[in-house]
């Protein structure tokens, strides 16, 4: 460490392999941190002459009443409902919201995160891009004493408040309903392997099948990179052309399910009598197509509202306050796409 460089919380966190928030709490002997970690952090800080940046602390005490919101897509029914919830709760507490879009790209996410950091926001709400696997760019906020709340798409190891839906339960409900209605050869078009909610939906799918002594061949699991209608169409075509085509398809999102439905319609495969389809999200478009799409409802407005409430609590009470995880229910909606 250069003598000209003033040691920061981020430096200590990097050297000790800890989260910035953990280092901050350890230096304050927070009861949630183990004595061993507190001792490790304090000894390192003393050895390397760590001095709190009082100028930065005082700077942070001056609120701007602006919060940042980073969302993968703005023109998207589910994320639009999250935005509405964030705006409703923030307006009720006198906060302005700076809305940014990552376009599902981690590089764009890093750029807008840096812009929000430079804009002196009081806190940040983020739904991570599908490409995000590490959060150094978000640790920058915690190092600057700016709280972060994750919503919907999260990284479990990033120690912040989180607001999610019960993706496991939603998927489990969907696949159990398919089984109850006589479907046995159930395929799953899932999201990326590194995305938390995609993994939870897959777990719910697999558990429902296992509980009913139903196995699935490897080709029944297809992984979307971008969660597009085109991927749904492509995977439906591949599944139905296989030696053992499914009699039902559970999709990671409604958009993917719409692609599946389009392929089945164009191929004169009857939905729901020959193939049942269930999506996830409850897009309004699913109520308009024929047959109407069965789906799992995600309460986007409530997700945004609760994430904002947690963020404002963090702004008022500091990073050392508990990091709560809120899990909202995901409810199955049965429509015409299952028999």
UniProtKB/TrEMBL annotation:
SMART domains per the UniProt record, alphabetical: HTH_LACI
Pfam families (UniProt xref): LacI, Peripla_BP_3
Q: Which InterPro entries match?
A: HTH_LacI, LacI/GalR-like_sensor, Lambda_DNA-bd_dom_sf, Peripla_BP_I
Write out the transmembrane intervals. none
Q: Which UniProt keywords are listed?
A: DNA-binding, Transcription, Transcription regulation
A GO MF annotation of the entry reads:
DNA-binding transcription factor activity
HTH lacI-type domain ranges (all copies): 7-61
PANTHER family given in the database record:
HTH-TYPE TRANSCRIPTIONAL REGULATOR GALS (PTHR30146:SF109), LACI-RELATED TRANSCRIPTIONAL REPRESSOR (PTHR30146)
The entry's protein name is Transcriptional regulator
Native organism is Echinicola vietnamensis (strain DSM 17526 / LMG 23754 / KMM 6221)
């Amino acid at each position: 460490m250069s003598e000209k460089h003033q040691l920061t919380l981020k430096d200590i966190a990097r050297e000790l392999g800890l989260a910035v928030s953990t280092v901050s709490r350890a230096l304050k002997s927070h009861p949630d941190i183990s004595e061993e970690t507190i001792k490790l952090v304090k000894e390192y800080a003393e050895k390397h002459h760590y001095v709190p940046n009082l100028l930065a602390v005082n700077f942070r005490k001056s609120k701007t009443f602006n919060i940042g919101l980073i969302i993968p897509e703005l023109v998207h029914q589910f994320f639009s409902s999250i935005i509405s919830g964030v705006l409703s709760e923030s307006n009720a507490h006198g906060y302005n919201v700076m809305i940014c879009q990552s376009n599902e790209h981690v590089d764009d996410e890093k750029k807008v995160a840096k812009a929000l950091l430079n804009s002196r926001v009081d806190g940040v709400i983020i739904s991570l891009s599908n490409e995000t696997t590490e959060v150094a760019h978000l640790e920058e906020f915690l190092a600057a004493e700016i709280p972060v709340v994750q919503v919907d798409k999260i990284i479990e190891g990033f120690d912040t408040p989180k607001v999610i839906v019960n993706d496991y339960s939603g998927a489990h409900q969907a696949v159990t309903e398919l089984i109850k209605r006589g479907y046995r050869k159930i395929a799953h078009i899932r999201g990326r392997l590194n995305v938390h909610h995609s993994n939870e939906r897959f777990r719910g799918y697999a558990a429902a099948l296992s509980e009913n002594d139903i196995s699935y061949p490897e080709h029944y699991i297809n992984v979307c990179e971008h969660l597009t209608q085109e991927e749904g169409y492509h995977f439906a075509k591949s599944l139905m052309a296989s030696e053992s085509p499914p009699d039902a398809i559970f999709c990671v999102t409604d958009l993917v399910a719409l692609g599946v439905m389009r392929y089945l319609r164009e191929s004169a495969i009857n939905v729901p009598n020959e193939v049942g389809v269930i999506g996830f999200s409850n897009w309004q478009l699913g109520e308009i197509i024929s047959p109407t799409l069965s789906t799992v409802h995600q309460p986007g407005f409530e997700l945004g509202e609760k994430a904002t409430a947690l963020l404002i609590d963090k702004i008022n009470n500091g990073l050392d306050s508990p990091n709560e995880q809120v899990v909202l229910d995901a409810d199955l909606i049965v429509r015409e796409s299952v028999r």
